[in-house]
């Protein structure tokens, strides 16, 4: 999926704009954390974010989003088409998840 490269690149741009974001490259993608609190994982074709519960609930009502088996607040975006709307959601949710993690949200991220 050529768009997957763009998804990862866009999220990486968002990460570069946020102070304190830590990156851990893995064989299947990149895990992101703030102050040791994981808040996102991005691979070639999907992005997983830990959002505030109310934001996560709203996110689950948008296209191409499901609840992964990671606990409350986690959402997984697997866009069928990587259009500007999917990219906007990914970068907005990344920033929101980073803020939530910085506030001390508990989190775990295993995939």
What is shown here, in short?
By secondary structure, the chain is of the alpha+beta class. It has helices spanning 2-16, 53-59, 84-102; strands at 21-26, 29-34, 37-43, 47-50, 65-66, 74-77.
Largest sheet: 6 strands, antiparallel
Order of helices and strands: HEEEEHEEH
Which outline best applies?
globular
CATH class: Alpha Beta
Mean pLDDT: 89
Record the strand order, biggest sheet. Answer: 1-2-3-4-6-5
Question: What does the radius of gyration come to?
Answer: 12 Å
Q: Could you give the count of β-strands?
A: 6
Class from helix and strand fractions: alpha+beta
The CATH architecture designation is Alpha-Beta Complex
Q: What are the segments in which pLDDT stays under 50 over at least 5 consecutive residues?
A: none
Q: Roughly what fraction of the amino acids lie in strands?
A: 25-35%
Q: What's the tally of helices? A: 3
Task: Please estimate the helix content.
Answer: 25-40%
Domain tally: 1
Q: Ends: how far apart?
A: 20 Å
Structure commentary:
By secondary structure, the protein is of the alpha+beta class. The protein has a single domain (2-102), classed as Aspartate Aminotransferase, domain 1, CATH 3.90.1150.30. It is 37% helix and 26% strand. It is built from three helices and six strands. The protein has helices at residues 2-16, 53-59, 84-102, and strands spanning 21-26, 29-34, 37-43, 47-50, 65-66, 74-77. A six-stranded antiparallel beta sheet has the order 1-2-3-4-6-5, with helices on one face. Helix 1 (2-16) packs parallel to helix 3 (84-102). It is globular. The two termini are 20 Å apart.
